[in-house]
Amino acid sequence: MRKGSIKSDRINAEVRRELSNIILNEIKDPRIHPMTSVVSAEVTTDLKYCTVRISVMADDEARDKTMEGLKKATPFIRRELARTVNLRNTPELRFVSDTGIENGIHMSELIDEVTRKDREAQAKRGEEEEEDGSF
Questions:
Q1: b/e for 90-113, b at 16 or more Cβ within 10 A?
Q2: Residues 97 and 54: beta-carbon distance below 8 Å
Q3: What residues does each domain of the chain span?
Q4: pTM score above 0.90
Q5: Is the Cβ–Cβ distance between 92 and 49 less than 8 Å?
Q6: Structural contact between residues 79 and 91, judged by C-beta atoms closer than 8 angstroms
Q7: What fold is seen in the domain 6-98?
Q8: pLDDT tens, the chain, 135 aa long
């Protein structure tokens, strides 16, 4: 199975979907933040390893606790994955924190702030031009 093939893409998508379901619905660990999502799952071509990118919409402390809880629950998650996904080998899971979504939200907030300041500056210039009587 080649990397980037349709089969590997389907396996990655199915593993990501099942891991998301397991993490959100079956793990009862209080360390895992409720705003945790599985961004991607990349299974190697030999189906032995899987890198799972996790996004946690919380502060750094909650993110660290969530990653710790997931690492402790890895054997349970792998067992549930083996039960729900029919693969020749159930991959060993490695959880990695992904801050891409948070970075995107932060950039969007910065753009909104700059846009708001620009509108305020344009409105102020428009008021000054009206007071001067020139357009």
A1: bbebebeebeeeeeeeeeeeeeee
A2: yes
A3: 6-98, 100-135
A4: no
A5: yes
A6: no
A7: GMP Synthetase; Chain A, domain 3 (3.30.300)
A8: 666 689 889 999 999 999 999 998 999 889 999 999 999 999 998 999 999 999 988 888 999 999 999 999 999 999 999 999 988 889 999 999 987 777 788 889 999 999 999 998 888 888 777 777 655
**Token pair in block for residue 52:** 């799972």
